[in-house]
Amino acid sequence: MTKIICVLYDDPIDGYPKSYARDAIPEIKVYPDGQSAPTPKSIDFIPGQMLGSVSGELGLRRYLESLGHTLVVTSDKDGENSRLDQELHDAEIVISQPFWPAYLTAERIAKAPKLKLALTAGIGSDHVDLQAAMANNITVAEITYCNSISVAEHVVMMILSLVRNYIPSYQWVVKGGWNIADCVARSYDLEGMEVGTVAAGRIGLAVLRRLKPFDVKLHYTDRHRQPSDVEQELNLIWHPDVESMVRVCDVVTINCPLHPETEHMFDDALLAKMKRGAYIINTARGKICDRDAIARALESGQLSGYAGDVWFPQPAPKDHPWRSMPHHGMTPHIAGTSLSAQARYAAGVREVLECWFEGRPIRNEYLVVNAGKLAGVGAHSYSEGNATGGSEEAAKFKP
Ligand code: NDP
Fold first, then answer.
1. What is the Cα–Cα distance from 301 to 229, expressed in whole angstroms?
2. Pocket flag, ligand 1, residue 374 (CB < 6 Å)
3. What's the 110 CA to ligand 1 centre distance in angstroms?
4. 257 lines ligand 1 (CB under 6 A)
5. Domain boundaries defined on the chain
6. CB under 8 Å to 154, separation ≥6 — which residues?
7. Does domain 3-146+337-375 have CATH number 2.10.60.10?
8. How close is the Cα of 80 to the center of ligand 1, in Å?
9. 8 Å CB contact between 341 and 25
10. Residue 398: predicted pLDDT
11. Measuring CA to CA, how many Å separate 90 from each of 15, 80, 112?
């Protein structure tokens, strides 16, 4: 029988929800490119309820225990002797989430001789040392597309929030003020601005489509070019590299995966090439930006604003400069874990586990590493190597 460790974020501070703001969520059966949403044989949860926190258990316990497997669910993942470290020695499957990442470093993989499957309940498996997974013949899979539209919506929200100076204006109301000039001294219209995305994959393209009605000028850079009909439909300007794109953009949204090629792409040198007063929205991965360079650019005015919900490491230490830098609009990695998204990735995890235990192949579009090589979505979007280095700093977070 198999031991499965599932690392999830903590329940709400007031306890696991007993009721919800809405009674149901829309059912999404097909994604915009025609890929079907997860198709498990059955589920043991109610879509729209909290599945991503410890007590939600991704709705897996009944299914796994009915097959005689052992399920360990914990949020304790960092620091000396975490529960994750204690349980790894005989685990065959680790399920983890990008939001509260169980960093599967080479050291941890060495402590887990039975580990065969590292499954990401979400999108983005950079918290797994992919090089070590390849070397140890561990399959890595994620639930492709499950929350891409969730993130695209978050990006649009953050662009508008920064450009229109929403968060400080809201705070004036809460403080009892009516300080119109204070609010509008940094407030602009998005209309007419040049907006560019680093990567036009599932999220990047969805962001471009959602921004078109705002009458902005749309740019993108990616390793592969969009078909010409898509470029025409959205009136897209393609750039062969990130430098040429950021030079002309007022707003830059980052939507590529983190891998050795994209790590610290936005450093002092690249930020200096941007227009003074540009905005960056990074919902992809914190490490794509140089942490201190971003804070410096906000302080000097080179950037007007920075928003996103991805950090490195996660959870971010209390003294992480992105918590206190000026003109930011950060959230704690929530874009892809709305209750709507949770229902899709929990169903996707169930689908992958059904395949695993029934000896059926996992969908190719879910695979990141298989049989010692990058595979499926991983072969398309990632490069070999490891981007987990430095993750032990997450242990500095104390609630
Ligand atoms: P996709 O795989 O659909 O798209 C990724 C795109 O990035 C691909 O088009 C790929 O190019 C491109 N790319 C890879 N490397 C580079 C590079 N060096 N320069 C330019 N483009 C590059 O993934 P998604 O759009 O679904 O997700 C993107 C990322 O967003 C995830 O990897 C994850 O890190 C993050 N994410 C964040 C979430 C959140 O909650 N904040 C939730 C979900 C995802 P090509 O394929 O053309 O080679």
1. 38
2. no
3. 28
4. yes
5. 3-146+337-375, 148-323
6. 283, 309, 331, 334, 335, 336
7. no
8. 32
9. no
10. 64
11. 31, 19, 7
Q: Which residues of the chain have pLDDT under 50?
A: none
**CB of 388 closer than 6 angstroms to any ligand 1 atom:** no
142 lines ligand 1 (CB under 6 A): no
For the Cβ of 207 lying below 6 angstroms from any atom of ligand 1, the answer is: no
* Residue 275 backbone phi and psi in degrees, to 5: -60, 140
* pLDDT at residue number 394: 80
Q: What is the pLDDT of residue 291?
A: 98
Q: What is the pLDDT of residue 399?
A: 59
The residues carrying an active-site annotation are 147, 285, 314, 333
CATH number for the region 148-323 comes to 3.40.50.720
Please write the tens of the pLDDT for every residue from 113-163. Answer: 999 999 999 999 999 999 999 999 999 999 999 999 999 999 999 999 999
pLDDT tens per residue, range 26-45? 999 999 999 999 999 999 99
**Fold match, 3-146+337-375 / 148-323:** yes
Q: Which mutation among 97, 154, 222 tests ligand 1's pocket best, with the greatest number of atoms within 8 A of CB?
A: 222
State if pTM tops 0.85. Answer: yes
Q: Which of 256, 281, 340, 383 to mutate to test the pocket of ligand 1 (most atoms within 8 A of CB)?
A: 256
Phi, psi of 398, deg, nearest 5:
-125, 120
155 lines ligand 1 (CB under 6 A): no
- HSE-CB of 174 using CA atoms within 13 angstroms: 6
Q: Token pair of 205, please?
A: 């393209």
Nearest atom (ligand 1) to Cα of 203: 25
